[in-house]
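hey so u asked for the seq, here:
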Amino acid sequence: MTAVRTTPVRGGVKSLAWDGNDLVDLVGGGRRWAPDPDGDEGLGPLHLGVWSVPERRWLHRSPLERPTGTLLARGGQVLALYGHPRLLDAATGAVLAEWPEAELPEKDLCFGVTHVPSPVAALSPDGTRLAVARPDAVAVIDLPPHP
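ran it, C-alpha cells below
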C-alpha cells in the first residue's frame, strides 16, 4: 500500500503541474496559499512557486505579469496556456518565449470553470515540441532547446 501525505490548502491555487518526481510548480490564486499554515507567508496571488515535496519548502517564488492558466512542466520551465502558449522560467517567472499566433482560451483556472473551454495541449516526451488543439487543426510548436 502506498502512503498518502496530504497538505491542507488554506487559500487559492489557480494551477499546478508536477515537475519531475519531487517538485510541484504552482500559481497562486485570489488568496495566499500556505502549505504549512504555521510556516512562512506562502504563495501570493499571481505568483509562480516551485515547491519541494520531500523538503516541504519553497525553492522559488516569483511574481507574474499575467495569468498562466493551465501549466505543463518542462524541467525547470513551465508552459503557460492562457490566451496563447508562453514558456516561463520556473525559478523567476520570466517569459523565455511565446507564441501569440497559437490562440488558446483565456481560462485562468485549470479546474472548476466550465463555461470557458480548457486548452487541449500535449508536450512531447522529450520536451522539444508542444501540440495545441485549435478549432480547425492542431498546431505543433518547436520549443527552444532546453538547457
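The radius of gyration is 15 Å. The first strand starts at residue 13 and ends at 18.
lmk if thats what u needed
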